[in-house]
Amino acid sequence: MKNLSEKALIGILIIILMFLCKNIENCKKIHNKAISMAVSDFYHSMERLLLLAKQPLGKTMYIWGGGWNEEDTGAGAEAVTLGVSPKWEKFALKQDKNYDFNATRYQIHDGLDCSGYMGWLVYNLMETEDGKPGYVVSSSKMAKFLAEKGFGEYTESSKVEDWQPGDIMSMEGHVWMALGSCEDGSVVVLHASPPGVTLSGTVLSNGDESKAVKLAKTYMKKYYPKWYEKYGVKACGYEYLTDSDQMRWSEELLKDRYQLRRKKAEDVLEWMFGKIQVEY
Question: For residue 49, how many other CB atoms are within 10 A of its CB?
Fold first, then answer.
């Protein structure tokens, strides 16, 4: 009887252990799934888009053809590589206030042009490994191209009513990203434009300096002082608002836990960099 009782007890213990192991495995699966979902929500998110967009800011020169391949038909090596090329900052550090982008045309590995920058940004947002097909296309076509990829909604320039953070805006000869609007209707701009990747802002309809321009100047001076000392900030014409087609990211594709899409430009910049006093 003693032996039978021991065997029965051992059997019961084995059953309990099997049950616990099964539940431990289930717990592990649930835990791993939760982690995977959290990582996915961050990877494809508005916050990550803005944080990625910052990476070449103030340390990458405008290079005509930068981000394109040698054939000038699409994305080059840097635009299908995760992370910032160390060549960009190395080249930028050698430049002075007299930098002339016309003298560096097609030095494609040394910096980015407007579509190269946006293509690099989208690739780093959407892809998880190097060398996949890229997103560099003609600047005037990029908003529509990205919308056709299923990333968001396309709106022609004549029908654009507002500018949210993350909106990709295409106009003739240029593509840029909006960082939100100000109370005076101006928009903070992030783009690659001579001399390089920088913050800027649209002027008012009468051509006067706007709150967006003042924000751009203040933040560049504070966080990129060497760049600002060399190049300052060039305002963007009002045509940026009247002549640009829009691609607005799908809310299902890009999660937005901080509700950045709904924020004014001043609040978006504060989230991206930190709060500073801006004199209007």
Answer: 22
Number of helices and strands (H, E) in the chain?
9, 6
Question: 13: pLDDT confidence band, cut at 50, 70 and 90?
Answer: low
pLDDT digits (tens, 9 = 90+) for 165-187: 999 999 999 999 999 999 999 99
Antiparallel, parallel or unpaired: β 168-171 and 174-181: antiparallel
Between 33 and 181, residue with greater pLDDT:
181
Whether 123 and 117 have beta carbons less than 8 Å apart is answered as no
List all residues 6 or more positions away from 191 whose beta carbon is below 8 Å from its beta carbon: 114, 117, 174, 175, 176, 177, 197, 198, 200
The DSSP 8-state label assigned to residue 159 in this structure reads: G
Determine the length of the chain: 280
